[in-house]
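Lecture 7 notes: from sequence to structure.

We start with a single chain of 429 residues. Read the sequence below before looking at the structure.
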Amino acid sequence: MRIPIKDVTPAVERAHIAGWVHEERDLGGLTFLLVRDRTGILQVTIPKKKVTPEVLAAVKEATRESVIECEGVVKATEKAPGGRELVPETLRVISRAETPLPLDVSEKVPAELDTRLDNRYLDLRKPRINAIFQIRNACLRAISEYLWDQKFTQVQTPKIVAAATEGGTELFPLAYFDKEAFLNQSPQLYKQMLMSAGFDRVFEIGAIFRAEEHNTVRHLNEATSIDIEMSFADEEDAMKMLENVVASAYKYVAEHCGDALETLGITDFKVPTVPFPRITYKEAIEISTAGGEPLVFGDDLSTAAERVVGEKMGTMYFITEWPTSTRPFYTMPFADRPEVCRAFDMMHPRMELTSGAQRCHIHSLLVEQIKAKGLNPDAFEFYLNPFRYGMPPHAGWGLGAERLVMTMLDLQNIREAVLFPRDRHRVSP
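Now the structure, written as tokens:
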């Protein structure tokens, strides 16, 4: 029975493996194949005078990145990767790879990002790239398990909707029979409706779509959002939940992804300490201005301003008490300071990771705020109706999975954290 390469040790004596030919070296009387599966790399050593003609013929047929299987004796050797090698008694080429390859999976010859993404199926074979997605998988697992432990219910909300979540024009329209429809920007409105339905605590990990014409290393047009909403809660409750969720993801990766971190060359992986520091929007403006990026009350934080404040803070942190004018209509303002609202952003020193807030649960105030944003409340009737019939106070947030992984692993481009990125120019593969 075939076993994963990571489980091949001299102690097993014999092994049956299958994988891709990562590298090939012919030294005359000896040929070495490095065979790779998702768990590791194993050296297959072929002494030409000691193996069968069938094995030699298969070795000759095998090109780099061909899929092969072989079975034989496992021996200890210091010179081979992992300190062991397999001498095959049988070897078969399952699927021969054409040559030349569009890119070098061994990464001895570097490739531009566009070339890599055009040939993503090959790029993802690289151990370093595979490690990114092992860690991404671990993050999402840890977050799901933490939220389940906190009595959240996992839900799935519609991705085809009739109205924008936040208004504006950043929407992908759809030809939906005889109706106007859009790809959803966020599960926000449906999360809030579920609070009226008595679900109390919900979370969703799913795709969101934003028709923003950004072409930067930190923006995508299709992303994965980790969203929660919780009843009888304010922004402080939401922030505490968020920092614990993020810390749990880091802790899980630290405990379970040592091999992947090593593959990525990350030797000093730190789990962030909670609670994260908190500064107000006003304080962030002051720090930015003092650092040479002048801003006034009501300005959004530019990339340069985020960098200045991030360098000052030096760790993950929250920015609280945002101007009401800068936040979506469903954000709850402070009763005694209506120009400021109960919103927050969670920041990594490099960039924003999360936006959240206590939501407005009062129907009349919500209608006023929709109008104040220049929107028509009639377009949000499906959303507003639940607020007429008993809506508890509630709060929540949305965390970008790609930005979490990007900052966790210090990736330089957010596309590195997506299997098949979708941006302004890329819809294939």
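The mean pLDDT is 95. Keep this in mind for problem set 3.
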